[in-house]
Amino acid sequence: MKVAIVKEEKCIGCGRCISACPFSAIKMDHKKAIILEEMCRGCMRCAPACPTNAIVVK
Fold it and tell me: Whole-model pTM above 0.85?
């Protein structure tokens, strides 16, 4: 199953991905988004919400 990952160097900590995730699989840690892999369902709704394209499929 595919899951999302965050490219830390691109993440600006805006939180748009958190709002886009229907599974509450994203949290903020030190102003960077973190994907909780055990909760991610691979829907990828977070990726288009990211203004810096920091979220990709693993």
Answer: yes
- CA-based nearest residue to 30, from 50, 16, 11: 11
- Can you give the CATH number for the domain in which 23 is found? 3.30.70.20
Cβ-contact 19, 49 below 8 angstroms: yes
Are 46 and 13 spatial neighbours (Cβ–Cβ below 8 Å)?
no
Distance CA 42, CA 37 (A): 9
Number of domains in the chain: 1
pLDDT, tens digit, for every residue of 5-42? 999 999 999 999 999 999 999 999 999 999 999 999 99
